[in-house]
Design brief:
This protein is of the alpha/beta class. It contains 25 helices and 13 strands. The protein has four domains: about 90 residues, Gyrase A, domain 2, CATH 3.30.1360; about 170 residues, Rossmann fold (3-Layer(aba) Sandwich); about 130 residues, no CATH class; about 180 residues, Isoleucyl-tRNA Synthetase, Domain 1, CATH 1.10.730. Helices cover about 60% and strands about 10% of the residues. It is globular and about 90 Å long. It binds one RNA strand through helix 3, helix 16, helix 17, helix 19 and helix 22.
RNA sequence: GGGCCCGUGGCCUAGCCUGGAUAGGGCACCGGCCUUCUAAGCCGGGGGUCCGGGGUUCGAAUCCCCGCGGGCCCGCCA
């Protein structure tokens, strides 16, 4: 067979819809095949078969008795014997269908034999150029698990979209113009711009945290004085608590870096932090001080190198590293400001230029297309400070336009608390006449990662950094590997430990819906048992092991197979799962929900592991049965490998 | 004050958009299975007001309304 169907399950659903449609038409019931197709669902229990048609909505619509509907199908099915259905049963308002195993298996094996490791990767008809911007952490401290969630999500959706046939570009936005970078530079300047020791993001991260804490403490102390003077005691308690929290932060830092903390406290004493920081920011933006430009660029470059090292460890790569400063220093900002002034939505808000969305956001088409909150009033967007320097959103508008240069669609992977800002960005683009950009900018939002009982905070230096997480994951995996394979050589052990540790992290971060807040618990993230990355990897290694021991290539020739054993429940279950993989992939890619893949992989692994204990493959005495089983095993191996590839998890040769 | 997200056995989670049959899993707990392709596994067991209350429906974890609890956002911060 040279012809093959890429999606066997889909093929069966279509054929079945037509069959039902035809059966009903014969007794003059007019329902379209597509309406039937849409009603088909999966029964909750195995004894109900694989495909179910609830008849409830048709009873009313056709004003016909349930028995008439059911009987027409059972009669037609037994008369015409469609090859893809083996059984129909009618239960409590449902018409249930059992897929013919032989039909499914023949098509599946033929498809897999043709597609190999492309099985399941159904391509879109019209591939797009898609930009995925993700991670984009401020270059002031090491990446933590929050960034890890962002990076893994961004990376995985990029991989999925690419396999779906799109061309994907991954970009990292280096936010070097923000206040946080200025604070770090401020600290470094007072330490006489030290050379980084160790990993640069960690080195600078400490300086940043201390400097920031000192500044916050001084600010809060001043605020408390003012509140006391004004007699606003109701605000005093809150501010006091905030101060205490920052004092704790500083104490925590002092525990780790006593010398540095004391030095910075000493050097920053009595300084006007705020105006100094403003000066740094302005100097950097206007490039008025060569020294500042050089220092900030050097610091950020070093930190970005640190990011790259970390991201490289978890297999995350970027095509472009876009520096915010490059955008500001280019002519694009002034061009956009000019466009803004010509825009009908331009306004002067509190003495500076802004965009006013009050009329625009009332257009319901705009609300819908930009996915704005239904009734929320979006405030005017201020474009620049009164001193003429740019604001973040202004730079973000420019960056968005740049990202759209050769792209049909841009996906920003950004945490959910930026939802309003992202909605504002889309509105701004529309207001400036960038309609295509506004309508095709997608905010892929995810919830934050918390520590148990504590909010993770980069600014407060309270976080589990990715490097430690990776190290811990790999060392835990190493213990497991050596326990199980005491005789294995050291190099192999370490390689497997790395594969397993990283697999655990990736799977843990991607298997929970992005919309759910994630509480970071070491033992959960580094779980190596069921429902984990290592579990999927282990299952893969087991399947591969059978194929390795078999010693020959599985050729998928459809002669000399035993289709009878496909009736065994465990094998049947595997077969049905395997034909569903293309559908799962398409759904995952269309909805950008990698957790679907994780869930499917878990189910497939469970089923395969049961099969593994119940149905020995290589010891199967009957050659035809053995071949059939081997085809199933080979297909499982391919599907698991394909899923691991999509999730960016390495598929280990052995474990 | 307004907006967004989340709430499912002790803990974590799927299902919710697109209503359908006995709410799937995992961790932890209890009991079995390694002379047979890797026990990171398999088989079995106990444990549930799907946050609460109304409504729509033949039918609600799912849709609508009103609450409750948790998180986040509403800056000339980023």
């Amino acid at each position: 067979m040279n012809n093959y169907v890429k999606d066997v399950y889909e093929y069966i659903l279509c054929k079945l819809s037509n069959h039902i449609c035809d059966s009903w038409n014969r007794i003059n019931l007019k329902v379209s095949a597509s309406e039937i197709y849409r009603s088909l669902e999966e029964p909750p229990l195995e004894k109900f078969g694989e495909i179910a048609l609830p008849t409830f909505k048709f009873l009313k619509k056709l004003s016909v008795d349930y028995n008439v509907l059911a009987e027409s199908i059972t009669t037609q099915t037994s008369k015409r014997k469609p090859e893809f259905i083996s059984k129909v049963n009618v239960v409590r308002g449902y018409i249930n269908f059992f897929i013919n195993e032989e039909f499914a298996a023949k098509h599946l094996f033929n498809t897999v034999s043709n597609m190999g490791y492309d099985y399941g990767f159904i391509k879109v008809d019209k591939p797009l150029h898609i930009v995925v911007e993700h991670t984009s952490a401020n270059p002031v401290h090491p990446l933590h698990i929050g960034h890890g969630r962002n990076a893994i999500l961004g990376d995985v959706i990029s991989r999925i979209l690419a396999k779906r046939g799109h061309s994907v570009i991954r970009r990292f936005y280096v936010n070097d113009m923000g206040r946080q970078v200025a604070i770090l530079a401020y600290g470094c300047l007072h330490l006489n711009n030290p050379l980084p020791k160790g990993k640069p993001d960690h080195f600078y991260g400490v300086i940043y945290s201390i400097t920031n804490a000192v500044i916050e403490i001084d600010r809060l102390k001043r605020e408390i004085e003012e509140l006391k003077e004004k007699g606003r005691f109701e605000d005093l308690e809150r501010t006091n608590n905030e101060l205490l929290d920052w004092l704790n932060v500083l104490a925590e830092l002092k525990g780790k870096e006593p010398k540095l903390v004391l030095e910075l406290i000493e050097k920053l004493k009595g300084k006007e932090h705020e105006s100094e920081i403003q000066k740094i920011m302005k100097a950097y933006e206007k490039r008025s001080s060569e020294k500042i430009v050089k220092i900030i660029r050097t610091i950020c470059n070093n930190i970005v190198e640190g990011f790259k090292e970390t991201l490289d460890k978890i297999g995350v790569e970027f095509d472009f590293w876009d520096w915010e400063s490059d955008i500001v220093w280019s002519s694009i900002i002034s061009k956009i400001l000019e466009e803004a002034r010509k825009s009908p939505y331009f306004t002067i808000h509190k003495g500076t230029s802004a965009l006013d969305f009050s009329s625009l956001q009332k257009v319901s088409e705009v609300r819908e297309k930009l996915k704005l909150p239904k009734t929320f009033e979006i405030p005017p967007l201020i474009l620049q400070r009164s001193d003429g320097t740019t604001l973040y959103t202004m730079r973000d508008i420019a960056y968005s336009i740049i990202k759209f240069k050769n792209a049909d669609k841009v996906i920003n992977v950004i945490m959910s608390e930026q939802k309003l800002a992202q909605a504002q960005l889309r509105l701004a683009l529309l207001a400036l006449g960038y309609k295509r950009e506004a309508y095709n900018l997608i905010h892929y939002s995810y919830e934050i990662v918390n520590l148990p009982g504590m909010r993770m905070s980069g600014r407060k230096g309270r976080f589990v950094d990715l490097d430690s997480l990776i190290e811990e994951a790999v060392s835990r995996a190493y213990l497991e590997v050596s326990k199980r394979n005491p005789k294995m050589d050291e190099e192999m052990k370490e390689r497997i430990a790395k594969t397993v540790g990283l697999g655990a992290i990736r799977y843990a971060l991607v298997s929970v819906s992005a919309s759910k807040p994630l509480t970071f618990i070491w033992d959960d993230v580094l779980n190596f048992e069921r429902n984990s990355g290592p579990y999927i990897q282990y299952t893969y290694a087991r399947a591969l092991n059978i194929l390795r021991n078999y010693g020959k290539e599985v050729d998928f020739s459809l002669e000399t197979l035993d289709y009878g054993i496909l009736k065994k429940p465990i094998i049947r279950r595997l077969l049905i799962l395997l034909i569903k993989f293309p559908k799962v992939f398409v759904k995952t890619a269309e909805e950008l929900k990698p957790e679907y893949l994780a869930e499917y992989a878990g189910k497939l692994a469970d089923t395969f592991n049961s099969f593994y204990t119940m149905e020995p493959v290589l010891k199967e005495p009957v050659e035809e049965k053995k071949r059939t089983k081997l085809y199933i095993v080979k297909t499982v191996e391919i599907v698991l490998k394909n899923i691991l590839t999509l999730l960016g998890i390495e598929a280990p040769e052995r474990m």
